[in-house]
Each structure stands twice: as C-alpha cells, then as structure tokens.
Amino acid sequence: MRIDIITVVPDLLKSPFEASILKRAIEKNLVEIHLHNLRDYTTSSYKQIDDYQYGGGAGMVMMIEPIDKCISKLKSKRSYDEIIYLTPDGNVLNQSMANSLSLKGNLIMLCGHYKGVDQRVRDLFVTKEISIGDYVLSGGELAAAVLCDSIIRLIPGVLGNETSALTDAFQDNLLSPPIYTRPSNYKGHMIPDVLLSGHQKKIDNWRDDKALQRTKDRRPDLLEE
Ligand code: 6GU
C-alpha cells in the first residue's frame, strides 16, 4: 500500500510514522507514506494557499489551484483507489471503513485547514470524505494519522500473532471483554476464577458474555447496527 498525504503542516505527520507498529510496517515495506507540503505547489511568490471566502464571513478557504497541481502530479504517476478528504463534516470513521480501506493499493489523503477547501476540490477530486468523530480539530493532520493507523495495522504482516487484529474490539461490533495478566492476586485483588480454570470453552463463553454486557452498558448503539 502507498499513502500520499497532502498537508500544510507536514511536521505534524512525521512522528506518528517514526515509532512502534507504523514504523515497522514501513521498514517491512508493507506500506509507503509520502508527505507533500501544499506550499510547494503554489505559483504565487507569497506561497499563498488560502484566501478569503466569496460571500464574506470569517475564516480562510484553501484554494483549488495548489491542490489541483499536487493531485494532478500524483495522478500522472500512478492511479489511486481513493482520494480522501479529512473533514469534520465527512462520514464518521468506523472499523468497517478501516477494514475496506486496508484492502486498497494507493490512497491520497488531503488534510483540511482553516475553514476547509474550496467546494470545487471536493466536487472534482475527492472520492471519500472522512471525519474521526464529532469534535473539531485544528486541522486534518491528526485525523489523517488516526486514519492511517487504523488502516495500516490491518495490512497482513503488520501485526504479529500476539497482537492480531482479528480479536480487536469493534471487529464484530462488540467492545472487548476485561483482560488480566500476572499476578493473579494483586494486594488481595483476584482475577476471575474462570480464567485460571484451564477450561477454554468456559473461558470463551465468559469473554463473550462480558463483551456483550459491556457493549449493552456502554455502546448499545453498536448492537443496533
Ligand atoms: Cl477529519 N478534521 C478536523 N479538522 N476536525 C475533525 C476531523 C477532521 N474529524 C473530527 N474532527
């Protein structure tokens, strides 16, 4: 997989890919991340990428021309499966969207800033609009990092067996059951007996019950989907 990220703040997107699982995925050549600074695609000598909005109103709007230049250059070299615009008014990211994006080859992610991009960018270039939740971030960069993480960890070979994505919360629209590790008795606080029973069927049933109960208590909306 190859992900090209278009941003005005490339620095914000460096560290997420320089540690832990995402770093290892890049080192194993399972994914390539390419950052593109939108200011490198301006024609004006001021490197202007935003302007006032037609019709008046507070806040700047990202101009179409630099974005067109950047996307056109990328598209001239390879084809892309999706051009994703990160925006708070997009479809809210969930596990099934991450699952389907993890099967794609080449993706472009466009990070919004200020008031967002000129509507014509969305109409002409963008194929998917994604938000990471109902709150506002200063820009789409951190949302792009979240989206990348949710996708890349699902690529076969990225996670080892000890961290397999198959048993993740949400993978079957359920939250995860409680988990424990050593010691079994911590200052008198015991782990549930069933986990020491050695009876795998009972353990699996206990986990299923707890996962369902937790989902009913905390996220009943997931059970309606
Ligand atoms: Cl994708 N962008 C911004 N600026 N804020 C957000 C978001 C995206 N998703 C949730 N909040």
UniProtKB/TrEMBL annotation:
SUPFAM superfamilies membership: alpha/beta knot
Please describe what this protein does. Specifically methylates guanosine-37 in various tRNAs.
Q: How does it assemble?
A: Homodimer.
Organism of provenance: Psychroflexus longus
What InterPro entries does the record tag this protein with? Answer: Alpha/beta_knot_MTases (IPR029028), tRNA_m1G_MeTrfase_C_sf (IPR023148), tRNA_m1G_MeTrfase_TrmD (IPR002649), tRNA_m1G_MTases_N (IPR029026), tRNA_MeTrfase_TRMD/TRM10 (IPR016009)
Pfam annotation, one family: tRNA_m1G_MT
Q: What are the entry keywords?
A: Cytoplasm, Methyltransferase, S-adenosyl-L-methionine, Transferase, tRNA processing
TM region(s), chain numbering: none
Similarity comment text for this entry = Belongs to the RNA methyltransferase TrmD family.
Residues bound to S-adenosyl-L-methionine are G112, I132, G133, D134, Y135, V136, L137
Q: What is its main location?
A: cytoplasm
Name a GO molecular-function annotation. Answer: tRNA (guanine(37)-N1)-methyltransferase activity
Residue span, tRNA methyltransferase TRMD/TRM10-type domain? 1-224
Q: Catalyses which reaction?
A: guanosine(37) in tRNA + S-adenosyl-L-methionine = N(1)-methylguanosine(37) in tRNA + S-adenosyl-L-homocysteine + H(+)
Q: What is its EC number?
A: 2.1.1.228
Query: Which Gene3D superfamilies does its entry note?
Result: 3.40.1280.10, tRNA(m1g37)methyltransferase, domain 2
Name it: tRNA (guanine-N(1)-)-methyltransferase
The Gene Ontology biological process annotation of the record reads: methylation
